[in-house]
Amino acid sequence: MARKRKTRRRTTSPPLWRRALGSPWCGRMVRTGGVTLAVLLPLVAAGLAVNRLEGHVRARVLIDHPEAQAVFVDLPPSLDDLALGAMQDTVAEHLRRPWTDDRLCRDIADALAGVAWVEKVRYVRRKPDARIIISCRYRIPVAMVQSDTRFLLVDAAAVRLPGRYPYDPTWHLIQGAAAPAPPPGQTWPGKDLRAGLDVLAAIQGESFVDQISAVLVDNFAGRADPLASHISLATDRSGGRIRWGSAPGYEVEENRVEQKLALLRENYRQTGRVDANNLVIDIAVHPDRYVIPG
């Protein structure tokens, strides 16, 4: 009787992907992924909820405060009539945008930086009640300059300010500047205008300042007549002149600024008039007295 052959049972190894799933490394990955999902899903849900809430809040505040309002917190009262309209016109287009726009403040600041009345934009801030708070350092006019038939304003640094104006005696006038007027926001070229501004700065705050109507610089540095006073002051009486002499800092063998001011103060103290009740006086020659030209 023939023997039965014993057959060997074949063992087949599981596929590679199944072995990988059963490996400790894979188990760790699955556990880590589960933890990550458990953490991320609430965060994603919270983020979506916050976005919906922000959208609701924005819609609500736009209903409560539909229009932005610009508030110029540092604008001096003296610029209300001169500059406020220009400032408002500059920001008007931006204020028609939703005031919750995150770029609104930056765009307003950029626009105002190009306005000649503005020396520097300090900040533009948005308030919850739709107010746009604007803080700037402004250029303040100190004199009116006659250029051809026009009257223009300049600040203490000789920067021309916007606008053309009729003559206004409430401003001190500078006459005789040789260079033509620059565009608004640019410095007026020429030393003559700066000399006139220096003289005005010297007499500001003096008790007699209202009796001075203009600074005449047409003979600056003796360009018209080397023997005549380089700078003169016009008084508030017709044809009244005070011969100042050279521009501040250019004096040669003549009174300095403080000596000239001392003479004018003494005139005003004794007579109530800066010119001591004379039509024309010269304060450049003697430190202790004025001279009436012959």
Overview of the structural elements:
It is a single chain. 33% of the residues lie in helices and 21% in strands. The termini are far apart. The model has no long low-confidence stretch (mean pLDDT 86). The chain has 2 domains: 69-138; 141-291, no CATH class. It has an 8-stranded mixed β-sheet, covered by helices on one side. With 294 residues, it is an alpha/beta fold.
Number of strands: 11
Mean pLDDT: 86
Strand order of the largest sheet: 5-4-6-7-8-9-10-11
The figure for the number of domains is: 2
For the terminal residues, how far apart are their CA atoms? 167 Å
Question: What kind of sheet is the major sheet?
Answer: 8 strands, mixed
**Backbone structural class:** alpha/beta
Low-confidence sequence ranges = none
**How helical, in percent, are the residues?**
25-40%
Overall spatial form: elongated
Helix count, DSSP H or I runs of 4 or more residues:
6
How many whole angstroms does the radius of gyration measure?
39 Å
Strand content: 15-25%
Order of helices and strands: HHEHHEEEEEHEEEHEE
Could you give a short description of this structure?
The protein has six helices and eleven strands. By secondary structure, the protein is α/β, with parallel strands linked by helices.
List the main descriptive attributes of the protein structure presented here.
single chain, 294 residues, alpha/beta, 2 domains, three-stranded mixed β-sheet, 6 helices, 33% helix, 21% strand, elongated
Please describe the topology of this protein.
Elements (H helix, E strand, L loop, with lengths): L15 H6 L2 H41 L4 E4 L11 H12 L8 H9 L5 E9 L4 E8 L2 E7 L2 E6 L17 E3 L15 H13 L8 E5 L14 E5 L5 E5 L11 H15 L8 E7 L2 E3 L3
Parallel strand pairs: 1-3, 4-6, 6-7, 9-10
Antiparallel strand pairs: 2-3, 4-5, 7-8, 8-9, 10-11
